[in-house]
Amino acid sequence: MLEQFNRNGVLDVLESEAVTIFPAVPVMLDALAGTFTPEEKDLSGLRLAISAGAPLRAETFRKFHERFSIYPRQLYGSTETGVISINLADDIENRAASVGRPVNQVIVKVFGDGGEELETGAEGELAVRSPSMTRGYDGLPEETEKVFRNGYYFTGDLGKVDAEGYIYITGRRKFFINAGGYKVDPAEVENVLLNMPGITEAAVLGVEDKSGKEHVKAVLVSERPVTAGEVAAHCRGMLADYKIPLAIEFRDALPRSPAGKVLKEQLK
Amino acid sequence: MNDVSERVRKVLEASLPQGAITENIDDDFPLIELGVGIDSVARLELLVALEQEFRVRLDEGEITPEFFESLGEMSRHISGKLGDDNS
To answer: Do A242 and B40 touch (CB under 8 A)?
Structure first.
């Protein structure tokens, strides 16, 4: 067993043990497809490469197939429900963007802003009913009431279901940053930053790099000179490494609406 | 800057979020100022990009935290690898 993800270690095990099913997050698939090896790895034993935890980019889908002759297939799930769906389509090249059809005994419906169930193909919030789903969050009745309604878990994911039952996720209703498959709550990072001496205002948001991947960015207002390195040092030990802002920008003030809400769209 | 460090610099710049200020990066610039080396996913992606640029193996198990500290550290390590491969 590998104690942690190591590209060459994973490739060695997949080859030597002729592994048949390999679940991973997209960033792992992307890294494996790009890993330099003096000799090509033989992963012909692999029957199913599963991608979960974040959207699978078309480029990763293509690169992984080019390198290892197998297409990754998206799996959709959540802590609250367990596995929701998996894409086992025969015509996977045409359905790469789908997270597949619901697994056995799981029902997925799409609801509009007014709580009405939407027609096939219409985009709205995805809601799930599953025999393995939790009844709610322990000790958090308000949070539970918000997302567990009428026997369904409202995922916060926006999406649609086509006529063949394939689910497509198109966005997020909840404002989380998706940093390499890890969900980052901006409010948690902002609270840590605001505890740093000298920082008077903080806004945290997700920004995409040139390849379309999302990173954590912090925009700060400081009453004294502070360096990005000091900010990173402050965050270390208080936040998991994937939550620490990779881009840090200082401003004299944060843009706000007349109601005082920070206009994060103007900070990207 | 030599050829290796110039190529490392280009790979590094491409890996940074848009808007990052990169004109001050020389061999000794502390890359922690740009957040380099903090995030494990970004570290992994940078290693893959460097492997593709130089066609050398940069295994996570042998890379120390110092590797990510400066352009000079990265260039020295990669130059050593290129030397090993050519010897």
So the answer is: yes
Q: How far apart are CA A245 and CA A252, in angstroms?
A: 19
User: What 3-state DSSP class applies to A87?
Assistant: coil
Per-residue confidence (pLDDT) for residue A135, from 0 to 100: 93
Contacts of B45 in chain A (CB under 8 A): 27, 30-31, 213
SS3 sequence of A100-159: EEECCCCEEEEECCCCCECCCCCCEEEEEECCCCCCCCCCCHHHHHHHEECCEEEEEEEE
Looking at residue A220, its amino acid is L
Q: Does the distance separating the beta carbons of B57 and A247 come in below 8 Å?
A: no
Lowest mean pLDDT among A154-163, A178-187, B3-12, B71-80: A178-187
DSSP-derived pairing of the beta strands A214-222 and A247-250: parallel
State whether residue A237 sits within 8 Å of chain B by CB.
no
Chain B residues closer than 8 Å to A179 by CB? 39, 41
B76 to chain A, closest Cα gap in Å: 19
Place of tokens 């699978």: A56
Report yes or no on whether pTM surpasses 0.90: no
ipTM of the complex: 0.81
Taking residue B7's Cβ as centre, other Cβ atoms within 10 Å add up to 16
Residue A261 · residue A232 · CB < 8 Å: no
Helical residues (DSSP H) of chain A, grouped into ranges: 7-16, 26-34, 58-68, 141-147, 186-194, 228-235
Cβ A34–B49 below 8 Å, yes or no?
Answer: yes
Contacts of A207 in chain B (CB under 8 A): 17-19
Read off the pLDDT of residues B13-45 as tens digits, 9 standing for 90 and up: 888 866 667 777 889 988 888 878 777 888 898
User: In which order are the strands placed within the sheet that holds A21-24?
Assistant: A21-24, A48-51, A72-78, A82-86, A101-102
